[in-house]
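Hey,
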Amino acid sequence: MRALFTAATGMEAQQVRIDSIANNIANVTTTGFKKSRAEFQDLFYETLKAPGAETAGGAALPTGAQIGHGVTLAAISRDFAQGERISTGNALDLAVQGEGFFELQKPGGESHYTRDGTFKRDRDGIMVDVQGYPLIPTITIPPDAEGITITSDGMVSAILPGSTDLVQVGQINLTRFANPSGLRAVGQNQFVPSDASGDPETGAPDENGFGGIKSGFLEGSNVNVAEELVQMILAQRAFEVNSRVIRAGDEMLQNAASLSR
């Protein structure tokens, strides 16, 4: 009975959908998190009568007869829509307003990219993320510097001892990709490029389409809890309906088996 296996694919699909929704809700307060959405497509079809086939009387069938075999996961895409800006008052907390990622350098020299602008100074005064990975290009702020200022175009300035004027100590750049949805998530709010994302393009903030930088703010998650709850209810109902189809198929098989008694 096709219905049993077809409904089973529907239940598996809704399980994946629930997994994606659960991850979104779990990260509703994660800085720079981008929500995901499961996308599906129908499976192959069994053709009982081909559309346009000739009948015994010589006429052509207007529609034919095809029976589908369920649904399969096509992709889990990531939505890079802007998240809400959260004020922190810390000059080293940075939010990207628009397109672009911060580039981080891993210990092995590999570059990772993030929208999480939670930066701090390490013991050498280098700007690093919460895991201790330095920002690229490297920016060193003297330990005794005061009045740190970061403008929307990425210029980092500070007041050094014995002076009352701001002195530039570094320049923050942003990186963008032709297809950010093709980036591969590796955890810790970080992404790495893939063949689908395209090559990284680096530029100055607020120029040539790159987003601007807002100091003293962080970008919050773009998850909308109300929307996720609605999608969760829809997924739950779809799972229940598919389970009823399996139950109905089982009852039909049971009735068919009882005929031989």
